[in-house]
């Protein structure tokens, strides 16, 4: 198995209490800790204000962070889970991504999805079309990005996007193009886009859901005559990794209390429960992730709620869990 790790960027209230002048240094220090711990990739979210409730706490913009982290790191790969197709025109996004791929020396991952957060769309003045329209936009956007990364001049006449002689230079460093992650588990449309274009996918709210959607993806690939085995399947995990069960319980209480400072107790309890499936000691996490690996998971993207304040969890996972699963 392969592993990536999210940096704190504020979206999940994970920079709360840190002075603004110290927030970027905190993000950068965590990025360097992720790199030093041996994770293959670091990740950001593409959102504009905090969850589970909007607050005045900072949420750093995804692609600005991509550019800064590209220049400030050396070996770790850089991804977004995931870019919302509605927030930036795809030709512009292709240009930004290619530029960052050059800055990073060929370390960019292109995560993209159809978008889902209606309240955020309306808050920032974006139209929120029905799901089928957003996924059709996703399909066209992926086509545009791939063509701009590999062709000298692009004409494109879609239902949602039109290009007339578009040129994108510099081209990405990566050959044939930046890896494309199509994120989302919509069975009829999103997974069909993934089957057609994706190098990587990201789905699965639990292991049974992951197994089911993997079968759906395989069926789409068979129908479209694409190679299911060539698509790397990933999922995201909210992780607590502590030395003892007592320390696990303390960390879960800390997550609850951190959230309750901004939201209702019911919301705080709900958020904390989201960590329980992947909360444990290193041995417990190895056992749970071996089950996911047996189900076909290739790549785990991890989120540690405390990483802005304490790197011990991500370091412990890197030192004790990853080596046991890398040979899987």
Task: Give the topology, please.
Layout: E1 2-6, H1 20-36, E2 41-44, H2 62-72, E3 77-80, E4 83-84, H3 90-104, E5 110-113, H4 118-123, H5 131-150, E6 154-157, E7 162-166, E8 180-183, H6 190-197, E9 200-202, H7 207-224, E10 232-238, E11 240-241, H8 245-260, H9 265-276, E12 279-280, H10 282-294, E13 299-303, H11 312-326
Parallel strand pairs: 1-2, 1-13, 2-3, 4-5, 5-8, 8-9, 9-10, 10-13, 11-12
Antiparallel strand pairs: 6-7
Helix pairs in contact: 2-3, 3-5, 6-7, 8-9, 10-11
Helix and strand content put the structural class at alpha/beta
Q: Characterize the biggest β-sheet.
A: 9 strands, parallel
CATH architecture: Alpha-Beta Barrel
- Radius of gyration, whole Å: 19 Å
Instruction: Count the E strands.
Output: 13
Please estimate the helix content: 40-55%
Hey, roughly how much beta strand do the residues contain?
Answer: 15-25%
**What name does the CATH topology carry?**
TIM Barrel
Any low-confidence stretches, pLDDT <50, length ≥5? none
* Gap from first CA to last CA: 6 Å
Strand arrangement, largest sheet? Answer: 3-2-1-13-10-9-8-5-4
Shape: globular
Rounded mean pLDDT score: 97
**Overall tally of structural domains:** 1
H and E order:
EHEHEEHEHHEEEHEHEEHHEHEH
What do we call the CATH homologous superfamily?
Luciferase-like domain
């Amino acid at each position: 198995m392969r592993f990536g790790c999210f940096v704190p960027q504020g979206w999940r209230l994970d920079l709360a209490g840190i002075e603004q002048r110290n927030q970027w240094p905190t993000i950068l220090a965590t990025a360097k800790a992720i790199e030093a711990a041996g994770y293959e990739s670091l990740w950001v979210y593409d959102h504009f204000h905090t969850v589970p409730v909007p607050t005045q706490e900072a949420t750093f913009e995804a692609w600005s962070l991509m550019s800064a982290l590209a220049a400030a790191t050396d070996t770790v790969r850089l991804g977004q889970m995931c870019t919302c197709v509605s927030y930036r025109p795809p030709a512009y996004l292709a240009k930004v991504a290619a530029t960052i791929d050059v800055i990073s020396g060929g370390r960019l991952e292109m995560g993209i999805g159809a978008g889902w957060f209606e309240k955020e769309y309306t808050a920032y003045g974006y139209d929120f079309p029905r799901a089928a329209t957003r996924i059709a936009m996703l399909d066209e956007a992926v086509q545009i990005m791939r063509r701009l990364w590999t062709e000298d001049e692009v004409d494109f006449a879609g239902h949602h996007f039109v290009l007339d002689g578009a040129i994108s230079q510099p081209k990405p460093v990566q050959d044939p193009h930046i890896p494309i992650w199509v994120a989302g588990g919509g069975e009829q449309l999103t997974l069909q886009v993934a089957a057609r274009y994706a190098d990587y996918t990201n789905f699965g709210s639990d292991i049974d859901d992951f197994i089911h959607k993997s079968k759906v993806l395989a069926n789409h690939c068979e129908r479209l005559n694409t190679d299911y085995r060539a698509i790397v399947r990933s999922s995201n995990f909210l992780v607590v990794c502590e030395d003892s069960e007592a320390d696990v319980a303390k960390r879960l209480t800390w997550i609850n209390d951190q959230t309750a400072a901004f939201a209702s107790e019911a919301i705080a309890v709900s958020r904390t429960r989201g960590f329980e499936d992947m909360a444990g000691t290193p041995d417990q996490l190895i056992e749970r992730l071996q089950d996911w690996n047996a189900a076909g998971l290739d790549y785990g993207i991890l989120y540690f709620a405390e990483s802005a304040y304490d790197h011990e969890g991500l370091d412990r996972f890197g030192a004790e869990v990853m080596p046991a699963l890398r040979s899987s």
